[in-house]
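Fill in residues.
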């Protein structure tokens, strides 16, 4: 196992399994749905998953985007590459507006944009009697977990994906550390991820140029 693969296994173990999935597990299991009551955390669960897949999409997307399409490309790229087919099929009629309606609505306006988030639906996405698109947070969670499992399998067989994730994290961390610094009088902002090294990942040498990915055995 090369250095990139070792680092990425640590990244998956600490960040993806240790932080992302464990926090999501607590949200889902410790806050079970209670019919006709407030406090079911529908919105926080959905928004949390969007944050996770936007971050992971930034690292895994085969053709990174910039500017106004950055968030859309990162989220939809991760869904297209790793989410199960049944979720993608339900999403297909709404894919052009999915990020704007749910992620942007929840992040910027508290509510989804003329849409709802539930925990009681039989499908991940469906339209209710009032014509509102409803996203089921629990089924969104299942699709995300399935996507993480596919990501884990992919990095065991795709050295280019391993290299891409490590290189992008390294680049984003360096850019963030240089351009996002708070002082008593000023704060400099940078578009993209603001990253701190997780405790187990400090062996990633941020000043080292990553080697090119190894060529597949059947490279032509």
């Amino acid at each position: 196992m090369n250095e990139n693969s070792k680092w990425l296994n640590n990244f998956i173990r600490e960040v993806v399994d240790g932080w992302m999935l464990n926090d999501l597990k607590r949200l889902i299991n410790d806050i079970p749905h209670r019919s006709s009551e407030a406090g079911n955390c529908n919105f926080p669960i959905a928004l949390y998953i969007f944050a996770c897949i936007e971050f992971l999409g930034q690292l895994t997307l085969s053709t990174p985007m910039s500017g106004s399409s950055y968030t859309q490309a990162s989220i939809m790229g991760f869904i297209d590459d790793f989410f199960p087919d049944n979720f993608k099929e339900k999403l297909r009629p709404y894919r052009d507006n999915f990020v704007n309606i749910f992620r942007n609505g929840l992040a910027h306006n508290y509510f989804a944009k003329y849409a709802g988030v539930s925990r009681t639906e039989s499908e991940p996405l469906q339209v209710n009697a009032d014509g509102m698109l409803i996203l089921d947070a629990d089924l969104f969670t299942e699709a995300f977990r399935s996507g993480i499992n596919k990501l884990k399998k992919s990095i065991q067989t795709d050295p280019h994906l391993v290299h891409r994730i490590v290189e992008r994290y390294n680049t984003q961390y360096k850019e963030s550390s240089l351009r996002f610094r708070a002082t008593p009088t000023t704060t400099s902002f940078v578009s993209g991820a603001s990253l701190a090294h997780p405790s187990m990942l400090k062996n990633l040498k941020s000043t080292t140029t990553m080697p090119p990915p190894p060529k597949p055995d059947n490279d032509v």
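Residues 92 and 196 are 35 Å apart (CA to CA).
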